[in-house]
Amino acid sequence: MMYSSAIKSTLLGVSLLFATAAVAQKEKKPDGKNKYIEGKKYDVTFTEIKTTGQAKPMPSTIVIKAGKVQCDLMEEKLTAPEMPYKVTLDTTYIEDESEVRKVAFIAEYTEEKTTYKWDATVTDYSIEGSFIMLKGGVQKKKFEFTGEEKAKKK
Fold first, then answer.
1. 55 closest CA partner among 142, 148, 119, 118
2. Which residues is 40 bridged to in the sheet?
3. What pLDDT is attached to residue 19?
4. What is the pLDDT of residue 53?
5. Are 149 and 127 in contact (CB under 8 A)?
6. If phi over 0 gives left and psi between -120 and 50 gives alpha, with beta otherwise, what is residue 79?
7. Is-contact 101 123, C-beta < 8 A?
8. Structural element, H or E, at residue 75
9. I need a labelling partner for 124 at 20 to 30 A (CA). Which of 6, 82, 138, 151 fits?
10. Considering only CA atoms, which of 117, 55, 58, 53 is closest in space to residue 85?
11. Consecutive sets of 10 residues in the chain, 154 residues long: mean pLDDT of each?
12. Dihedral, CA atoms, 91, 94, 95, 101, nearest 10 degrees?
């Protein structure tokens, strides 16, 4: 009987050791970078969503690199800096007998009561999403965007 208790204790100890190692592994994840979207540029069209309707579409480029998302138009219009992104979905599935890769990410930055938020989804070579600016927790500007990955120059 004592022998079986010692084995149970040893097994419990080994199990805890592996569980702790597994948790430690998960915490060592890279800083939000995603190999599929990292280093990509997207030609996009932003449309401001207003209470009176939609404004004229504006072209721009979204750049994802070094674990951050950046857009010249949002920087010029709203002084939004580049922001670290966090991947919320990374999956591959089959649709119409073709493999589809989908990656969703969010990014948020707050400075002096102003918050900027990205929420985007990349499906294969397309991107869509929204960009919101809040002041004191109240939405001041909202843009929706769609676009395609920029072709790399050869």
1. 142
2. 64
3. 45
4. 77
5. yes
6. left
7. yes
8. helix 72-78
9. 82
10. 117
11. 55 47 37 84 96 89 96 95 96 95 97 96 98 96 96 72
12. 30
- Specify the pLDDT at position 17: 44
Contact 103, 85 (CB under 8 A): no
pTM passes above 0.85: no
Collapsing DSSP to helix, strand or coil, 37 comes out as coil
* Helix (H) or strand (E) run with residue 27 in it: helix 2-27
Token digits of residue 99: 């493999």
Q: How is residue 62 annotated by DSSP?
A: E
First to last CA, the chain: 73
71/110 Cα distance (integer angstroms): 17
Residue 151: predicted pLDDT: 80
Specify the pLDDT at position 32. 59
Q: Which 8-state DSSP code applies to residue 1?
A: -
Query: Is 55 in a helix, a strand, or coil?
Result: coil
Question: Structure tokens of 30?
Answer: 């890279």
